[in-house]
Write a structure and sequence with these properties.
Structural class: alpha+beta
Oligomer: single chain
Order of helices and strands: EHEEEEEEEEEEHEHEHEHEHEHHEE
Radius of gyration: 21 Å
Number of helices: 8
Largest sheet: 7 strands, mixed
Amino acid sequence: MVLSTQILVTLKVHEILRTALQSGVPRVECSLDLDRTLTHVEVASEGWIWQGRSFPYLETCNERTIYYWDDGAFQPVSRYTMSLIKLVSTHWGPPTFEIDGVKMLPTAQTSPYADAERKVALIQPRGKVILDTCGGLGYFAAWCLKGLAKQVLSYEKNPDVMWLRELNPWSPKAGEVLSLTLGDIVERIRLLPNDSVDAILHDPPRFGIAGELYSQVFYDQLARVLRRKGMLFHYTGTPNKLTSGRDVPNEVAKRLRKAGFVAELSGDGVLAVKS
């Protein structure tokens, strides 16, 4: 039998199944897609049953790990090529991801999915052609689609992150409106025509990992492809100046102004308009 969707197991799900087994409950409701939907699972001593197939209980289940069903066994949703790339569960449901242990999306105060909703709203996506420079798990793109963007041009340079997207039920699929390209935006942006997008979402890794995405040269390219009066939201995070010795948000705003933007700090980023 072919499964209708990928099974994803977290510690929360594992504990629900184990508790039901210990209590003698034959059937429980839980989520096998990171809280997008609920489904019913039959519980037995030799394993649990879903869609007519039996699956084993995990011998070890880590709190921050997500497991997927692959070739007859549950495996962590992680890969190591040049870096360790890992999908990480959150109590919100929508996951974040890590590169070499560094969390790429905020999760402490809000869901990374809800956080993306707030930021996308700043650039008012309805009817616009939007450049999504660093696609990641695609949460920006998802809210652009929900906000009725005309077109979303999304780029992601890491093939392992693209693989995470394939397994993550919260990541949008490419289609008529969403174009998803495997490639480095630093190089690919030079292929985009002048004044070809209405808005930009720029959510790069931290400065120490990807300094080229904070450079004056790159900001000049953002200004070139953005139409006049077009909006840009640039996520910077809120690094501590006392420990890092740098004021990244204000450095970003200064460079954006030099590139031709009117830029102001906004929450954990910079909101700018091309003048």
